[in-house]
């Protein structure tokens, strides 16, 4: 709208000048006669318009370090979340060729590596009508052999999904289904023990089925913005663990002007888990988060509240109803430096599905609890010191109730139990650096140090004391794409309840390499290498991961 006003103003001034100048030129010159003309150019007269900020370009107040992303070779959907722009033919009727992204509806990727690891992956999209898009995707990767006794530590992953979006004038409706299957063995035993010479570990299969759908507005620049999503999930394993969950997420916001915004978020979760030691449990969670914020070129501040109802049963609980404040802000002193700080309390929703995604070797649990974040406060600095180089350094302190940890079970050390600490304090120091160089190199690095103070547990079992992540992306030539990543963590303490022994695990060092070369517009070749140092890494006690592992293959677009 503001651009239209500016254009109209400029055209109006131009028209007025032409109207005043043209009659003089016409009447001063008769037909067929050319006369001398004199023009006066005034260099000191400059037509200027005030700079108006565009609301849809809400850049962060402070330049932040680029965030890291996990080195997962996941396929990103090709379909757009917004309808494609339709280019109308001009008077010349010139035909514009379609880009390569518009020509190829799908792709298939296949490969093979050591440990007997085939890979098959694909996606196909349909967008015949500009008002909708529809896609299907599939991925399977398996490892016939593992780090312990070959096929006794095999593993496989299978994912399938359908998704689609229908676009209206002012909103879009989306939805889909997704199925995940993860098969593995509980191989965390001592293979050198002669008493276990004929032992074959038990197998587990995690099945997860999701049905989701929602609606959201398309124009995010004016008025009220909204998004509502319904998600239904069913989960079970080969034993007696199962969990059904229905969640509703609703987000709404309104910009009062270019600087002032208000929002209200809703989060509802209805969960019914069961396991060997419990059943017929309904874990309900409802959260409302009103928030108001102000931002300009140098200042950003926000204030709100987390209002939560949850019905977990625990001895140290005072009420099912919680209200926590949320405040924070950033102030930019200059391009090179700015300061930030925040204070927030919350209830962190935790389901059985969340726990098993964090540790797949989880066994029967006696109870499931949310984590009460009494407060988390911190401060730091961030900014840009050189062109393309950003940084962030800070700390935060938090106080929690019912923070979860893992330990090998007392009755079955191959499967882990959940342990909850009654009162936990966490001090975290963090440093982040991001750098981009001339478009062909990008680096992101994060370093974290954690100090835990616990009340009922002896240590922060299976949680790292420090983490270091360095991710690099290279595009040395037009047809090359190379990733070189290093993920390190250490200070992990394992606890075996069966032997009542604790053990500090060796530091984890995982060097990863992925290279992709485009042979033609439709065909490319790739190579992936994990754990290139061939280390005996253990993220969880008694569970070493595969050694150096590679896979090569190709991708074909169609």
UniProtKB/TrEMBL annotation:
InterPro entries: Beta-barrel_TonB_sf
Alphabetical UniProt keywords: Cell outer membrane, Membrane, Receptor
Predominant subcellular localization, coarse grouping: membrane
SUPFAM superfamilies: Porins (SSF56935)
GO cellular component, one term: cell outer membrane
Localization per record: Cell outer membrane
Protein's name in the database: TonB-dependent receptor
Species of provenance: Aquiflexum gelatinilyticum
């Amino acid at each position: 709208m503001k651009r239209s006003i500016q254009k109209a103003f400029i055209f109006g001034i131009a028209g007025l000048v032409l109207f005043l100048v043209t009659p003089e030129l016409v009447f001063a010159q008769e037909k067929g006669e050319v006369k001398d003309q004199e023009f006066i150019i005034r260099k000191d007269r400059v037509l200027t318009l005030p700079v108006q900020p565009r609301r849809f370009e809400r850049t962060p107040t402070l330049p932040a370090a680029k965030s890291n992303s996990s080195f997962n070779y996941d396929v990103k959907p090709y379909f757009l979340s917004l309808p494609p722009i339709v280019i109308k033919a001009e008077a010349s009727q010139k035909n514009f060729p379609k880009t390569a992204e518009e020509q190829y509806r799908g792709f298939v990727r296949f490969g093979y590596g050591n440990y007997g690891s085939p890979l098959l992956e694909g996606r196909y999209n349909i967008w015949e009508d500009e008002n909708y898009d529809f896609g299907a995707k599939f991925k399977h990767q398996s490892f016939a052999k593992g780090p312990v006794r070959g096929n006794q530590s095999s593993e496989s992953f299978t994912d399938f999904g359908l998704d689609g979006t229908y676009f209206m004038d002012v909103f879009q409706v989306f939805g889909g289904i997704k199925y995940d299957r993860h098969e593995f063995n509980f191989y965390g035993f001592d293979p050198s023990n002669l008493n276990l010479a004929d032992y074959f570990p038990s197998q587990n299969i995690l099945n997860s089925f999701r049905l989701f759908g929602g609606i959201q507005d398309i124009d995010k620049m004016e008025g009220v913005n909204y998004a509502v999503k319904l998600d239904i999930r069913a989960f079970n394993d080969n034993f007696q663990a199962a969990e059904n969950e229905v969640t509703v997420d609703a987000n709404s916001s309104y910009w009062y002007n270019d600087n002032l915004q208000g929002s209200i978020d809703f989060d509802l979760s209805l969960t019914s888990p069961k396991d060997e030691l419990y059943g017929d449990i309904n874990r309900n969670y409802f959260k409302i988060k009103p928030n108001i914020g102000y931002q300009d070129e140098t200042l950003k501040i926000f204030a709100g509240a987390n209002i939560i109802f949850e019905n977990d049963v625990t001895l140290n609980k005072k009420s099912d109803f919680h209200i926590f404040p949320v405040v924070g802000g950033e102030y930019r002193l200059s391009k090179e430096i700015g300061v930030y700080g925040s204070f927030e309390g919350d209830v962190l929703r935790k389901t059985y599905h969340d726990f098993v995604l964090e540790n797949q070797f989880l066994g029967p649990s006696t109870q499931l609890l949310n984590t009460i974040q009494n407060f988390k406060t911190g401060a730091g600095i961030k900014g840009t010191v050189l062109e393309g180089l950003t940084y962030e350094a800070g700390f935060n302190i938090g106080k929690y109730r019912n923070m979860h940890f893992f330990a090998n079970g007392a009755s079955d050390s191959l499967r882990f139990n959940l342990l909850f600490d009654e009162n936990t304090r966490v001090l975290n120091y963090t440093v982040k650096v991001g750098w981009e160089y001339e478009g062909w190199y990008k680096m992101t690095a994060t370093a974290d140090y954690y100090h835990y103070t616990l009340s009922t547990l002896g240590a922060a079992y299976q949680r790292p004391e420090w983490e270091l992540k360095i991710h690099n992306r290279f595009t040395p030539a037009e047809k090359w794409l190379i990733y070189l990543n290093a993920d390190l963590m250490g200070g992990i303490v394992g606890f075996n309840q069966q032997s009542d022994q604790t053990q500090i695990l060796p530091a984890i060092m995982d060097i990863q390499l992925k290279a992709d070369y485009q042979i033609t517009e439709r065909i490319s070749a790739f190579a992936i290498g994990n754990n290139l140092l061939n280390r005996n890494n253990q993220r969880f006690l008694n569970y070493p991961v595969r050694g150096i592992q590679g896979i090569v293959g190709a991708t074909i677009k169609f």
